[in-house]
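**User:**
Make up any protein.

**Assistant:**
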Amino acid sequence: MKVNRSPFQRKLLAWYHAYKRPLPWRLDGNPYRIFVVEVMLQQTQIKTVLPYYERWLKTFPNVYALARAPLDKVLKLWEGLGYYSRARNLHKAAKMIVEQFGGIIPNDLESLRSLPGIGRYTAGAIASIAYQKSVPLVDGNVFRVLSRVFNCKNDISKPKTQKKFYELATGLIPEKEPGNFNQALMELGSLTCIPETPRCPSCPVKSLCISFKKGDPSQLPVRANYLTIKKMEMVVGLLAQKDRILVRRRPASGIWGGLWELPGAVRKKGESLEEALCNEFQNEIGIALKIERKIKSIEHRFTHRLAKIYPFECKIEHGFELRPKNRNVRWANRKALQKLSFPVPHQKILSGIV
């Protein structure tokens, strides 16, 4: 599995400089902007990130603005982008950068990886792209490119294979333009060496690609499919008084961490939907509910789960005082609701009444 290193670097970089997309974070190599976008791009496509990135920089143009912002404002700006732990970690990391690094984004892997939410890939991206450090980075696109170039048929979901790919990437990265080289690998995977039907005739390194010579690049990479989708049922309660709706902030960790929600629960085995909702309100908030009517259900896909969510319009039967355990529960009017950040399915439910 040998690939001629120098021609590969030369051909790939020449192609990148000629055909790279004019993405806004590539304009000046600003470390803060690269830091922000690399976190946004974790598990999210560029076309989805672009409008969020531009709005983010208008609101938080530098790490100081982000560090001093309230978390609710950060989450509201992130609303709809998903994987909200990224926003919480970005906020925490900004505070650490201001407090521990004098407001300067670190340039070494060890310091970068000490920041919340920054793993091996993101640290490598920031170090190489923002600071031109000769360190490798391997994302899904790069896994695909390297598996085809080196004709590697090992399962890329296994840690042993991933370690091997980092070694291959390390052996290819040049001393000059390491950031551009890493971006070129990702760009090749995004534009040309795509899944299922790679565009081999237009590939700048096809003459060096072992799987192209063997005639089977579309069969790579190899990934065992262990993904099983679990179905679940959720209930939420729309409890209104005058022009206000009862909302609750979710725990900081876990699914939709830190966002606001219409209070509800996952239906347990043996419970009816109505029982699940009434139990949640009674046990967690201190409200005895009277359910008025069921609203049209909606479906929401998580990474490994498919949820069917049943909203109910409700009234208070009796009870409810904001005890200490209810400090994350509040009444919100229309104006307040527009300032709070809700998960996408809750946004859809609220859109019909707000």
